[in-house]
Amino acid sequence: MPALTPPEIPAGSLAASGQPTLTVGGGALLRPWLIGDAQAVVEAFGDPAIQRWHVRRADSVDEARGWIRRWQGTWGDETEGHWAVAGADTGTLLGRLSLKAWNLTDGTAEVAYWTVPAARGSGICPRAVTALAEWALGEGGFHRLELEHSTANEASCRVAAKAGFEAEGVRRGAALHVDGWHDMHLHARVAPE
Ligand SMILES: CC(C)(COP(=O)(O)OP(=O)(O)OC[C@H]1O[C@@H](n2cnc3c(N)ncnc32)[C@H](O)[C@@H]1OP(=O)(O)O)[C@@H](O)C(=O)NCCC(=O)NCCS
C-alpha cells in the first residue's frame, strides 16, 4: 500500500551522517557514550532520585558496560540516540540525554534525561536539552520532539519549560513507578514551519 507522503527523514540518512557531538555551553558537551563511562553510570544509578524517576538500578560495572554497548548501537539501527553530557575539558560525566522512539516517517522522537547529583541546579540539563532539540529539529531533520515526566517531578517540568517544550496535557496513569501509577505531563517542541 504506497504511502501518499514521503518520510520526514529518509531511512539510512542519520546512520550515514553519524552521531554528532554537540556543544552545550558552560564547559559541557554532548558526546556519544564511551565504555569507560561505565563506573560513572553505576554511581549515577546509585542516586535515589535517578532510581525513582528512571525505575532502574545498576548492579555492576559489567551491567553498565552492557547498557553502554546497547546505547552505542542504536544510532546505526536508527531507533534511538544516546549521549553522555560531559565536561568538555575534564571528560567527567555530568548527565545523560537520549532521543528515543524514533519514527522516521513522521519525524518524531522522545527526549529523556538525568543529571548526576553534583551537577544539579546549575541549568546544565535545560542547556543540553536545548542544544539537542536545536540540532534534532534543524540539521537532524526531526519534525516534533516529545518529552514527558511524572506530574510529581517538578524539577523535570522546569527543564522542559526552560528548553522550550510547551505543555500539551496530562496522560493519566501512564507510567508505573515503584510507588504506583503516575500521571505523565506531556510537553513537545515542533520544528518551525
Ligand atoms: C530533573 C533534572 C534532570 C534537572 O537537571 P538540572 O541540570 O539540575 O536542571 P536545572 O539546574 O535547570 O534545575 C531544574 C530545577 O530543579 C530544581 N533544582 C535546583 N537546584 C536543585 C538541586 N540542587 N537538586 C535538585 N533540583 C534542583 C529547581 O527547581 C530548578 O528549577 P529553577 O531553575 O526554576 O529553579 C535533575 O534534577 C535530575 O536528574 N533529577 C533526577 C532524575 C530525573 O528527574 N530525571 C527526569 C525524569 S523525567
What does it look like?
With 193 residues, the protein is an alpha+beta fold. It has a single domain, classed as Aminopeptidase. The protein has 6 helices and 8 strands; from the N terminus they run αββαααβββαβαββ. It has helices at residues 13-17, 38-44, 48-54, 61-77, 124-137, 154-162; strands at 22-25, 28-32, 81-87, 93-103, 108-115, 144-150, 166-177, 180-190. It has an 8-stranded mixed sheet, sandwiched between helices. Helix 2 (38-44) packs across helix 4 (61-77). It starts with 12 loop residues before the first helix and ends with a strand. The mean pLDDT is 97. Coenzyme A binds next to helix 3, strand 5, helix 5 and helix 6.
Query: Briefly, what CATH class?
Result: Alpha Beta
Biggest sheet details: 8 strands, mixed
Estimate the helix proportion, in percent: 25-40%
Order of helices and strands: HEEHHHEEEHEHEE
CATH topology: Aminopeptidase
Overall SS class: alpha+beta
**Helix count?**
6
Q: Can you say what the CATH homologous superfamily is?
A: Gcn5-related N-acetyltransferase (GNAT)
Strand order of the largest sheet: 1-2-3-4-5-6-8-7
CATH-derived architecture: 3-Layer(aba) Sandwich
Could you list the spans in which at least 5 consecutive residues all have pLDDT below 50?
none
- Total beta strands: 8
**Which shape, going by the Cα principal axes?**
globular
Number of domains: 1
Strand content: 25-35%
Quote the distance from N terminus to C terminus. 29 Å
The overall average pLDDT, rounded, is 97
